[in-house]
Design a protein that fits this description.
This is FAD/NAD(P)-binding oxidoreductase. The protein has 13 helices and 27 strands. The chain is α/β, with parallel strands linked by helices. It has four domains: about 1-110 and about 245-305, FAD/NAD(P)-binding domain (3-Layer(bba) Sandwich); about 130-240, FAD/NAD(P)-binding domain (3-Layer(bba) Sandwich), CATH 3.50.50.60; about 325-410, FAD/NAD-linked reductase, C-terminal dimerisation domain (Enolase-like, domain 1), CATH 3.30.390; about 420-475, Orthogonal Bundle (Arc Repressor Mutant, subunit A). α1 runs parallel beside α8 and α11 (about 430-440) packs across α13. The longest helix is centred in the middle third of the chain and has 16 residues, at about 290-305.
Length: about 475
C-alpha cells in the first residue's frame, strides 16, 4: 500500500481526496492522509460571496460532511501547521509530530495580496482594525459581523472576487464603493467596453466606483484617501486585490519555484515524489486563481497516485469565467482581448449599455476562441457550448450574439447530445457524466442530485440544465452517458 500525504484541505486538496477514493474506495491501494491548517471541513471558496450576501449559510458551502473522513478511510488532521518537509527522510513535520510519505502532494493554495497602502497593516504586519481580507470562511464571518445595513464599505479590487463581494455587501444594504487602480473592471477577463457596461449595471444595483486611481492611505474609522486626492468613507475595508501562490513550504523544501511551484504534465515538482496542484502550482497550461484547473488536475493526479491510469497527463484547462453576483449574468472565455479590426480573427461586438448588455465574439476558422457575454444568458449558454465542444459557429453570427441561434449539431440542445465530459455546473465543476452516475446510484430527483453532486447549489445558473438532464434521465433511463 502506498502512503500518500496531501498538505492542504482547501478545494484542490479536498477534490484530490475525493478523486483518490473514487478510484480506491476501500483504501486498498492508497493510505491517504490529509493535513489542513483551518479548523473546519473543506468548503467551496467560489461561493463565499453568497455567504457574504446571506443567500447561502456557511454549512451550505461545505464540501464534506463532518463524518466524511471516517466513511472514506481518510486520516484527516485539521488545525495543524505544517512547518517543514524533509525530502531526504520523506517526512512532513506537523507541529511536533512527523508524518511519513511515499508520495507527497502540495495543495497549499494561495494567500491574499494586500496592496502596499499605508495604514492597511498594523505595526506587526497584521491587517489593521477595520480591514478584512476576502479569502476564507472566517473572513466571511468577520465581514458579515461588521457589515450592517447602512455601513460604508470600501472594496479594494475590481476583479472577479472583489465585485462578487461588493454585490453581496450591497445586497445587505451596505454603502459600497469599489476602488480599483485600473481604468475598467475585471481587466484580466474583460475589454474596456465590457468593463464600462458592467460598471453601469452594478451602479444600478447601488455600488459606486472609483476607477483608475489607487488608494494612498487608510485611517481606521475614517476611510481611504485616494491618489487623486479624493476621500472614500469606510467603516470597513474589504481587500480583494488578488492572490499570490503559497510557496513557502515548497521553497523551504528546496523545490523549484517561480510564481508558483513548478510542475510538469504529470504534476510532478522538481522532486518526482512530490506533486503540486491548484493555486500553489505553476503549469504552462493553467490560468491561476480559478478552481476549474485544480479540479481537472485532481483527476489526473488521482489516476497516477492510485495506478488506475499511470500515463495520465494534464494538458491545461479551457476556462470559462462566470461572475456569481445576483442580477448580473456575465461569462468570459478564451482570448477576448482582440481588437475588432484584428487581421487574423473574426471579431463581432454588440453593445447596449442602457439595458446592461454587451457581447463580443472572437472566432478563428469558424471556432469560438474568445467571448464576453454580459446580460444575455441565452447567448452565453450557446457560445459556451460551442467553446467547450469545439463546434463550428452558426453562419448567422448576429443571431448567435443575440441568443437566437443554436450551435450547429447541438440538436436543439438535447441532454442526450451532450458528451459525458461536458461541464454542467461550473461552480462545482460537475459534468453530465457525474450527474448520470449519481442518478444510477439512486439520486433520482433534483434535490437528491444536488445533495449527491452539489450541482445547482452555487450561483443557480445551471439549474435549468440540471433539471433538463434529470427529466431526460427519468424519461429514458439510458444505459450509458
Amino acid at each position: 500500500m502506498r502512503n500518500v500525504v496531501v498538505v492542504g484541505y482547501g478545494m484542490a486538496g479536498a477534490r484530490l481526496a475525493d478523486e483518490v477514493r473514487r478510484r480506491d474506495p476501500g483504501g486498498e491501494r492508497v493510505a491517504l492522509t490529509v493535513l489542513g491548517d483551518e479548523p473546519h471541513p473543506a468548503y467551496n471558496r467560489v461561493l463565499l460571496s453568497s455567504v457574504v450576501a446571506g443567500s447561502l449559510t456557511p454549512d451550505a458551502v461545505r464540501l464534506h460532511a463532518p463524518d466524511w473522513a471516517a466513511k472514506h478511510h481518510v486520516d484527516l488532521r485539521l488545525g495543524g501547521a505544517v512547518t517543514k518537509v524533509d525530502r531526504t527522510r520523506r517526512v512532513v513535520h506537523v507541529d511536533d509530530t512527523e508524518v511519513p510519505y511515499d508520495a507527497l502532494v502540495l495543495a497549499t493554495g494561495s494567500r491574499p495580496w494586500v496592496p502596499p497602502t499605508p495604514g492597511l497593516l498594523d505595526g506587526n504586519g497584521a491587517l489593521a482594525p477595520g480591514v478584512v481580507a476576502f479569502r476564507s470562511l472566517d473572513d466571511c464571518a468577520r465581514i458579515v459581523a461588521e457589515a450592517s445595513p447602512g455601513t460604508p464599505v470600501a472594496v479594494l479590487g475590481g476583479g472577479l472576487l472583489g465585485l462578487e463581494a461588493a454585490r453581496g455587501l450591497a445586497g445587505r444594504g451596505c454603502l459600497v464603493t469599489v476602488v480599483h487602480p485600473v481604468g475598467h473592471l475585471m481587466e484580466r477577463q474583460l475589454d474596456a467596453g465590457a468593463g464600462r457596461v458592467l460598471a453601469r449595471t452594478l451602479q444600478g444595483l447601488g455600488i459606486e466606483f472609483r476607477l483608475g486611481t489607487p488608494a494612498s492611505r487608510y485611517a481606521p474609522g475614517e476611510g481611504l484617501e485616494l491618489a487623486d486626492g479624493t476621500h472614500v468613507p469606510a467603516d470597513l475595508v474589504v481587500v480583494s486585490a488578488g492572490v499570490r501562490a503559497e510557496t513557502a513550504l515548497a521553497e523551504q523544501a528546496g523545490l523549484d519555484v517561480d510564481r508558483g511551484v513548478l510542475v510538469d504534465d504529470a504534476l510532478r515538482t522538481s522532486d518526482p515524489r512530490v506533486h503540486a496542484l491548484g493555486d500553489c502550482a505553476q503549469h504552462v497550461g493553467t490560468v491561476s486563481g480559478l478552481v476549474q484547473p485544480a479540479w481537472e488536475q485532481a483527476a489526473v493526479l488521482a489516476d497516477r497516485l492510485t495506478g488506475v491510469a499511470p500515463a495520465a497527463r494534464y494538458a491545461g484547462t479551457t476556462v470559462v469565467t462566470r461572475l456569481k453576483a445576483r442580477d448580473v449574468d456575465l461569462a468570459a472565455l478564451g482570448d477576448a482581448h482582440v481588437e475588432v479590426d484584428s487581421p487574423d480573427a473574426e471579431v463581432l461586438c454588440f453593445q447596449d449599455p442602457a439595458r446592461g448588455r454587451y457581447a463580443k465574439l472572437v472566432l478563428r476558422d469558424d471556432r469560438v476562441t474568445g467571448a464576453i457575454v454580459l446580460g444575455a444568458p441565452d447567448a452565453a449558454a450557446a457560445i459556451v457550448q460551442l467553446y467547450d465542444r469545439g463546434l463550428p459557429a452558426p453562419t448567422d453570427r448576429l443571431a448567435l450574439l443575440l441568443g437566437r441561434a443554436l450551435p450547429a449539431g447541438a440538436a436543439e440542445a438535447s441532454p442526450a447530445d451532450l458528451p459525458a465530459s461536458a461541464v454542467v455546473c461550473r461552480c462545482n465543476t460537475v459534468s453530465k457524466g457525474q450527474l448520470v452516475t449519481a442518478w444510477r446510484a439512486g439520486a433520482t430527483s433534483l434535490s437528491a442530485i444536488a445533495d449527491a453532486t452539489r450541482a445547482s447549489t452555487g450561483c443557480g445558473g445551471c439549474r435549468d440544465a440540471v433539471c433538463g438532464i434529470v427529466d431526460w434521465l427519468a424519461a429514458s433511463q439510458p444505459q450509458s452517458a
